[in-house]
Every structure is written in C-alpha cells, then in structure tokens.
C-alpha cells in the first residue's frame, strides 16, 4: 500500500545529461551538476554507480569504500526500530535499494538533518524554479514522531522552508502489517532564480533529534528544473537613485532603484555587484512605472517595513566610496559611483534625468536631508529631494497622440528637433521646448531614426498634488483628458470631489494597432503619456487617485468585432461597444458616448495612404452619430433600435461581424440584427456572427465630411447616410414594461451601492415598478439609525439616493429600504 501526499507537482517532459560528482568527508555529500536540460533522477543500487541521460544511480558499495566509518547494513528482515543501525539499506526489485538518512556534516548542530543534496547549475540557462519529488519507504507499525520539512538554500540566503512540504510522521504510523510501505512528497519550489554555476542546496530536517534511527528510507529523488532566459534591459529603464552604506557592520545599507518608464521592469535575475561582492534577485519582483524600489541588506527590514523591497544577506557596499553595477541578461543595465561623506546619511541623485542612460556620476549625488529615524538620513522608496523624470519611446513611422507629464529638456530630446514633427490641436508646429505639460500633441516621427526616446522632467507647474486634472477642448462631442504620472491608475481612480468614479470609458490611440481603442475596464492601467478622449459631458473637476475602491463593472454589454477574411484566417479590423448603463451613471441625462475616430494617419492629405475599415454604432440617444462606445438604459422601458455599418477605403472585402453578449443581459430580452440590404434577420442570442461581403469602398475623407476642427486634429468618422444594419433590443417582460396594477413578487429592488467600499459618499440605487411610498434609512451595526435618505412617495422607475458619510466613522453600515410590508437591506462599507 502506498501513500501520496497531496502536494502540487508539474511535470516537464525533458531529458538531461547528469554529471554526478560524489565527495566524501566523514559522510556522503552528493553534488549533482545539471549540464544540458531540466530532468534528472537519483536512485541507489547494490551494483555499480552509473550516470546516463536523465538519471544517476549511486552504489552503496562506493559510498562505503569512500569512508570506512560508513557501514550500510541490510535490514530486509523484520528488525524493530530499536534494532536499526545508524546507516542501513533496504533491498528492492531489480537490484535497487533504498537508503537511510544521511547527515551531511556529522556535527552536533546538524543532528536534525535527515538528508542533504546540493545541485550545481551547469546548463545553458538560468533556473527560475524546481519541481521535486521524493519517494520514501517507511515501516507503518513503528511509532514515529515529529515533523519532517524540506528546506532550500541559495547563495548566502538562509535556509527556507519549502511551502507544502511539511510532513507529520505520526500520520504514517498505523496498526497494519509489519512491512515497508511507500509514500511520496511532491512540491514546487519557486523564487530560486539561479544563474549558471550557482548552487542550490536541499535538506530534509526534523523538528527534533529522533534519538534512534528512523524506520524511513529514500528510494529516489527526481528533480525537474524550469529554465528561463533573462533579456537585457533597455538602457535607462532602471536608475540607481539613492545609496546608503552605513559604517556599522550589522547590515545598514540599501540601494534604491527608479523606473522612469511607463512599463513595469522585472528584477528577477538582476545581478547586483559592488567590488568583489554581489547577489542576485531570485524572486519574481518588479519596479512599477514611475516608482521606486529598494534592495536592502536584511538588517534594514524593520525600517523598510512598508516599502517595496528585496532583502539580501551580507553587506556588499563599501562604507566610504565605491561603485554599484546592475547586470541583466549578461549585459550592464545601470552603474553608479558614490562617495558618502556623512556616515549616517544616504546620497540621493539630485535629478534622476542625470542618469537617463542608466549611468550616474558621483557628482550627481547629494547627501539626503530626509529623516529616516535611528539617527539616519535617507528616503528609501520615495522621491525625497530628487527631481524625477519620465520617458517613453516613439517608434519610427507611427503617429502618436500624446501628452507630456513634464518639461522636455532640449539637451535630452535632440532627435525630436530633427526626426519628428510636433503639432498642436490647431495644426500648428510646436518646438519641444515650448510644449506645455498636460496638453495633447500629435507626434509624427520620421523614418531615419528607428526609435526616438522622449524625456520629460518634473517642474513646479507639472507636479501633481491631487488637484483637478487638465482637459483640452476637442469639439462639441468630446474633450481630451491628460493624466499625471501615477502608478497603477485605472478608470476607478478618475473621481469627483466625492471620491466617486465619473468616467465609465475613455478612448486612446494605440500606435501599434493604428486605431483608437476603448478602455472600459479596471483591468487596464492608464498611461500618463496617452492623451485620452472623454465625452464632453463628463463632470468636472476630475482627480486621479490610486487605491480607490473599484467601480462596479459595466455588466450588461454587447461587443461588436469586425473581421476581414484573409484566406483561412481572420484579421481583426475594429471593435465597438453597446452597453446598458446603470442609473447612477446617467442621472440628469448625462451621456458618455465616444465617437468613432479616423486613424491619426488618415488626415485629408493622407487618407488614401493606408487601408481603413471602421465599424460604428449610431444611437438616437447619443450626442454624436458614429460611435465606438454608446449606451442605453440599464432597464429599458421600451424597444430601442441601434443602427450600424462599416466604412472602408477598400472596394471589396469579405467580412465577418462577430458579437458577444455578457451573461448579465436578461434572458427575456430579444436582440435581433437585421441586414437591410438582404432582409435577413439574425437572433443575436442564438447566433454569434454574420458573414457578408462589403462592396462599397466609399470612405474618402474630405474637408466637408470630416467632423473635426482641423486637418491634423483628431477626426470623427462620417457615418453613412443609410446604415446597412439595424439592431433591435426588445426588453420582453422587462420590469419597467409591466403595466400591472398588482405588485409582482421581487419587483422592488435595492441594488448594490456604488462605490463600495466608499469614502466619503456612495450611491444607493433602487427600483420600484409603480408609484409608492418609499423609506430608505442607514443604520450602524448596533441598530441605530444614522441617516434618512428617502421618506416620500416616489414615481415608478430607477432612482439613486446619495449618502455623504463625511462625518461618520469607518465601518459597516446597513441600508434599509421599506416599501409597504416589504423590507430590503444591504451592507455597505465606509473606509477612511
């Protein structure tokens, strides 16, 4: 009978050549070198030691010959636990054996170590993790106590317990027959990034010395390595911005890194070197955009408790002067020279842009004036006295609609003068030095340089302190919104003065796809270099904050995707969105429609340069006719008809229109697509696509039909005079469509408040099917009423009541809606 302990184990089908070197120093220490790939198995035999592809078989005789003090005894008989020798083996089939515990050093401090195995990485790759399986035999009717735990160690880091490996030995004991039984422990070991030539050490340890030999033997060990390749970093994507190297020897040192780019930078596999000392970042760590990260000696952990950090063990910095080098993928990524004149103070980079290429000079650092506590000065993990900069990359030949989060120093942006054209929204050429932070501009890079990196530096005018965001006028239907360089910002962070999200969707230019995309989900982080398009009706002022409560998703939505058939494949050309907006968004008749926009390259001078195929939605409720994003009521009280069509510069194309409906759209709604050219009607619930041939080639942009302000500005797509498709939404038996006098069970709804959690205000949304007396109150958890929101006769339909809890403490509150003899409640959470 065997036992399989339930630990995760991922098998990787790969072979390896294993070179086994066995060293004896009082006890067995087997050092296994991986040379080619990621699979090997270690087992034991009474015959000769063998190594070949994927396995190493160790001879018990060779172990004994290497050290006379080792004497392995065959215990295949029914010997009791008290009679077991210190080292023994158990014969298995086919000449194989299982061996007992191996103490790696023989010292008293290691008496609790049951087995030990070091590995050396001699493959052509770095290792990012290991999957290990250990096959044991045990004698079930012998009593065993304590816990057996697998530990792993890399470099100078301490021994760490492997999650999920702990085994309680008493669980193996039973009153079964006096025989040996098997069990296997399988586990995955992450965060052990190991370079070529680095070692990884395993050991099994007991929580207490057993006193007598355990009736436990190892049959085999199987290890599969996960390989990885570290790619070199783009120069300037990491900058060493602060260095602290205290004079004491208890670990007072740290290195601060800054990421000036709009993308996260992975630190996994980063090699940090200083003189003869070095360490490697072995965990999956990253530096967020425009953010700081600290590499610190473990002694600094209490001071850096809330700071993004990676701890290393043992000092690597000289306390006076020295240098630091960062390597990734075998290439140098950053370097800094430092001279610390004040022993208990860090040195900070005065302007991060002085290290724009990753190299920081000694004269660019200044002593920190920030109080770190414990008699030290420093600002690990935040700006301190440094002036930040931000960078992004422009690819040659692509137009960009961008805003700059600071000033553009001429000395750092010389290619902009020679290799790019910059235009404001009026179509006027602008010099880089004259550009204003937070304003949208159109960039057109030339073909000479492959890439142009932009560098913007903070200024007093550009620093963001949480105030209103900047907007620029587009036309009567939309505005441009520019964002500060805030890490992790999503749509939920675009809020009003009551900390309520106010933008359900924005539109941004994607230079790679060469089209405008709609962002409507918090799954996408917003990029401060992108000038975003919002509906002109979005309320002001706007603020940008991270860490705000996630807004409720747009649950009811239909996504339309336009594909062009190209042989056996399909190419996505465009997408548009129809959503059903809850009442808290659309109270007072507010609209959030986003226009269908022509690609930036499609101005009146170059409309024919590239093929354009755009699918738009026309909604009579919208303040514009051709939409990428449009909306209807969450609970339609009548039938609605949306028209749609494709406009393309191509004369003919085989087209597939696909759509997807979210599960939250009520099943009783009937949604029908009609092709007005053919008269064909499609049930959009029973079918998810429609194939047809587009044969118009009618899209020619001219001054007369472009709905924009200037030839080089952002232009709206002019819709067809007669749209080909009609989409009918019929809310069959919708609650608002019922005209019955009697109240229907469940027809009164108290919906989820939004946002939740909130600070300080939240919206309470409710629905009633007819005119009736409604009372809504808010209670604390002990039943005391703290607010009355509604106490009057309300008309049929959806309503929103807002509760401002600015004078209330944080906690859970109960919203209660009373209607006749019905009572509805919801829990809401206030977090300040």
UniProtKB/TrEMBL annotation:
Pfam families: LTD, Por_Secre_tail. It comes from the Bacteria. InterPro entries: Lamin_tail_dom (IPR001322), Secre_tail (IPR026444). Residues 226-342 form the LTD domain. This is LTD domain-containing protein. It comes from Rhodohalobacter mucosus.
């Amino acid at each position: 009978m065997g036992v399989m302990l339930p630990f995760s184990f991922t098998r990787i089908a790969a072979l390896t050549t294993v070179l086994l070197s066995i060293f004896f120093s009082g006890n067995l220490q087997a050092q296994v070198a991986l040379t080619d790939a990621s699979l090997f198995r270690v087992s034991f035999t009474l015959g000769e030691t063998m190594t070949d592809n994927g396995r190493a078989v160790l001879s018990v005789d060779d172990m004994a010959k290497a050290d006379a003090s080792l004497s392995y005894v065959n215990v295949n008989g029914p010997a009791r636990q008290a009679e077991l020798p210190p080292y023994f083996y158990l014969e298995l089939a086919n000449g194989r054996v299982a061996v007992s515990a191996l103490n790696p050093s023989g010292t008293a401090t290691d008496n609790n170590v049951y087995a030990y195995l070091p590995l050396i990485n001699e493959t052509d790759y770095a290792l990012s993790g290991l999957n290990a399986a250990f096959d044991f035999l045990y004698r079930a009717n012998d009593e065993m106590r304590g816990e057996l735990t697998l530990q792993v160690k890399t470099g100078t880091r301490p021994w760490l317990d492997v999650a999920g490996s702990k085994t309680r030995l008493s669980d193996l004991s039973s009153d079964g027959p006096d025989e040996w039984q098997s069990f296997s422990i399988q586990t995955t070991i992450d965060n052990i990034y190991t370079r070529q030539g680095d070692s990884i050490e395993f050991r099994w340890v007991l929580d207490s010395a057993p006193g007598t030999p355990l009736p436990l033997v190892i049959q085999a060990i199987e290890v599969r390595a996960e390989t990885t390749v570290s790619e070199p970093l783009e120069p300037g994507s990491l900058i060493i911005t602060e260095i602290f190297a205290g004079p004491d020897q208890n670990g007072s040192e740290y290195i601060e890194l800054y990421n000036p780019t709009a993308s996260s930078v992975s630190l996994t596999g980063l090699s940090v070197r200083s003189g003869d000392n070095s360490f490697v970042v072995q965990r999956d760590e990253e530096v967020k955009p425009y953010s700081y990260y600290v590499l610190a000696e473990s002694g600094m952990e209490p001071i850096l408790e809330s700071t993004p950090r990676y701890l290393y063990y043992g000092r690597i910095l000289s306390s006076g002067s020295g240098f630091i080098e960062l390597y990734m993928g075998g290439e140098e990524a950053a370097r800094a020279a430092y001279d610390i004149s004040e022993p208990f103070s860090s040195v900070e980079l005065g302007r991060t842009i002085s290290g724009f290429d990753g190299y920081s000079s000694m004269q660019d650092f200044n002593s920190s004036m920030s109080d770190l506590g414990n008699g030290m000065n420093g600002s690990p993990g935040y700006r301190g006295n440094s002036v930040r900069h931000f960078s992004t990359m422009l690819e040659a030949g692509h137009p960009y609609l961008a805003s700059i989060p600071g000033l553009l120093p001429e000395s750092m942006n010389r290619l902009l003068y020679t290799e790019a054209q910059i235009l404001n929204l009026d179509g006027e050429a602008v010099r880089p030095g004259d550009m204003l932070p937070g304003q949208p501009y159109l960039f057109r890079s030339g073909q000479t340089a492959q890439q142009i990196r932009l560098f913007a530096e903070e200024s007093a005018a550009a620093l963001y302190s949480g105030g209103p965001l900047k907007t620029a006028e587009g036309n009567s239907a939309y505005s441009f919104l520019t964002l500060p360089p805030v890490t992790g910002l999503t749509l939920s962070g675009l809020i009003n003065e009551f900390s309520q999200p106010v933008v359900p969707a924005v539109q941004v230019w994607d230079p790679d796809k060469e089209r405008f995309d709609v962002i409507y989900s918090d799954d996408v982080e917003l990029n401060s270099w992108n000038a975003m398009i919002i509906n002109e009706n979005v309320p002001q002022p706007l603020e940008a904050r991270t860490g705000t409560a996630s807004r409720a998703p747009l649950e009811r939505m239909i996504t339309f995707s336009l594909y062009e058939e190209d042989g056996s494949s399909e190419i996505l050309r465009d997408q548009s969105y129809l959503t059903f907006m809850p009442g808290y968004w659309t109270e007072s008749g507010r609209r959030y429609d986003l226009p269908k926009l022509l690609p930036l390259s499609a101005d009146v001078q170059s409309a024919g340069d590239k093929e354009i195929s755009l699918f738009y939605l026309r909604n009579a409720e919208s303040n514009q006719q051709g939409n990428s994003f449009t909306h209807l009521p969450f609970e339609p009280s009548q039938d609605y008809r949306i028209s749609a069509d494709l406009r393309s510069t191509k004369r003919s194309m085989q087209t597939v229109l696909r759509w997807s409906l979210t599960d939250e759209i009520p099943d009783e709604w009937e949604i029908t697509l009609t092709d007005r050219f053919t008269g064909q009607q499609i049930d959009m619930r029973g079918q998810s696509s429609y194939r047809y041939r587009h044969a118009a080639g009618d899209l020619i942009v001219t001054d007369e039909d472009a709905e924009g302000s200037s030839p080089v500005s952002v232009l709206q797509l002019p819709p067809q005079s007669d749209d080909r498709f009609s989409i009918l939404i019929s809310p069959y038996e919708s609650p608002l469509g019922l005209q019955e006098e009697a109240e229907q069970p469940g027809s009164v709804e108290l919906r989820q408040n939004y946002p939740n959690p909130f600070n300080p205000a939240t919206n309470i949304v409710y629905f009633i099917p007819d005119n009736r007396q409604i009372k809504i109150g808010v209670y604390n958890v002990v039943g005391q009423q703290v607010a009355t929101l509604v106490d009057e006769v309300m008309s049929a339909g959806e309503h929103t009541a807002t509760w401002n809890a600015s004078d209330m403490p944080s906690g859970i509150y109960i919203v209660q809606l009373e209607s006749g003899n019905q009572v509805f409640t919801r829990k809401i959470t206030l977090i300040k």
